[in-house]
Specification:
19 helices; mainly alpha; disordered N terminus; about 425 residues
């Protein structure tokens, strides 16, 4: 768990007052200096930024009071807040290598993520079954969302949320968005669900096991354990998983309906029929020659479905249902919804995709990317691990290798690069 806490004695007392001993948190013994290094506190922010943020906070407090936030909440929330350069650094240094849909799916539904998902299902099977019975959302779907959002709780976010949102709001990022999230986070504190020291998240404000932003939390978070708090941060994921199920249920989830099913198209199929908004019953799609591609059965014949071809006519094809659109409410990207649906299917025991790659796709499969990382490291260009993910370490290793060989320096993996590495 990456929650790093910096509670003063006063805030510790306030935490006990707000929530008793309900949360199972880590980090209470972490020295203050270590905590502040993790949170970017020793990066010496410019004094003018520190002063500017403090002035901005005073103005924001007035708006918060007008919306019903109490002085006591404001005092506790902003007591230790200062300008955090780490938040700005992370906001400006997002992933530089864009994966294709197929690379994204291979990483999202990797063997490791499947194995960890099965372990999570085994460990929390009882609570997940109760969540499914309560909200009608498949426990495998809830688990898949958990895996996608925080790697089953391993990556819950390590930045102090009020400080992060204050820094971004002061810098003017994304207009009113971060200010609205900051206001919502104050509402969460005022409700007593969490204290400022444990309220950590990503640089952009996503929190806990299921990475809710504060406004989503206020609308959909639930107290499934019955302890009086909607706790999505602690080691016990029950509230977070139930909150994700509640969100999907209120986004239109229909029990018993698959979100996406891979299909095969008949020869000469009119691909102009594909696309969102072009709904037909599954029975109608079948009458046009569409069939299931694997042992994963099609949705019921009367169900409404759309056909999507994310890789073009040479890649995998999917029938998607209203449940696919419910997942899009969580994260509005087809790649994400496909990943959640497919990971859930793998957790249910269904096979992988029958036709995941377009025939003309130039990228490397995950095992090839792992081989590339092993070869780069063996030749003295350390990728800092062999996982198939092409991040900054691998890109830098590729660039160093290309420079050493007098090749065009692109930093991009390719079949040609792999072949060169194989030749030594």
């Amino acid at each position: 768990m990456r929650l790093s806490l910096r509670l003063s004695a006063t805030l510790t007392a306030m935490a006990l007052l707000l929530g008793g001993c309900a949360g199972n948190y880590t980090g209470m013994g972490v020295p203050q200096q270590e905590q502040e290094i993790k949170w970017g506190r020793y990066q010496n922010p410019p004094p003018e930024k520190v002063a500017g943020l403090q002035n901005w906070v005073e103005g924001f407090k007035a708006r918060a009071r007008a919306q019903g936030i109490s002085d006591s909440t404001l005092s506790i929330a902003f007591r230790d807040v200062t300008y955090n350069p780490e938040v700005v650094r992370r906001s400006q240094n997002q992933a530089e290598f864009k994966k294709s849909l197929w690379e994204y799916l291979e990483n999202a539904v990797s063997e490791k993520r499947q194995n960890n998902g099965r372990a999570a299902l085994a460990q929390y099977g009882n609570v997940l079954s109760r969540i499914e019975a309560t909200y009608g959302v498949d426990k495998e779907i809830v688990t898949a969302v958990w895996g996608m959002e925080s790697t089953y709780g391993e990556r819950r976010g390590d930045l102090p949320l009020i400080e992060a949102l204050s820094t971004l709001s002061y810098e003017g990022y994304r207009g009113d968005f971060f200010r609205s999230q900051l206001m919502a986070s104050l509402g969460i504190l005022q409700a007593g669900d969490i204290d400022p020291g444990h309220m950590t998240g990503s640089w952009a404000g996503a929190m806990g096991h299921t990475q809710f932003i504060p406004t989503t939390y206020l609308s959909y978070a639930v107290d499934f354990t019955g302890d009086g708090r909607r706790d999505i941060w602690s080691n016990d994921p029950s509230d977070a998983l139930a909150s994700a199920a509640n969100y999907l249920a209120k986004s239109g989830w229909q029990p018993g309906l698959p979100a996406a099913v891979e299909v095969t198209l008949p020869a000469g199929f009119n691909t102009g029929l594909a696309g969102k908004g072009k709904r037909r019953s599954v029975a109608e799609w079948q009458s046009l020659g569409i069939r299931q591609a694997t042992s994963r059965p099609l949705p019921p014949g009367a169900a409404s479905a759309e056909l999507i071809l994310p890789g073009g006519s040479s890649g995998a094809a999917f029938l998607i249902t209203r449940n696919f659109h419910a997942i899009l409410r969580y994260n509005n990207a087809d790649s994400y919804a496909l990943a959640v649906a497919h990971l859930a299917d793998r957790l249910k025991g269904y096979p992988g995709l029958a036709n995941p790659w377009p025939a003309n796709h130039p990228g490397l499969r995950i095992e090839q990317r792992k081989e590339m990382q092993r070869l780069l490291t063996a030749r003295g260009f350390d990728t800092q691990g062999v996982d198939g993910n092409v991040g900054s370490n691998t890109i830098n290793a590729i660039k160093a290798y290309q420079t050493s060989r007098g090749l065009p320096v692109t930093g991009e993996p390719s079949a040609a690069l792999l072949e060169q590495l194989r030749r030594g």
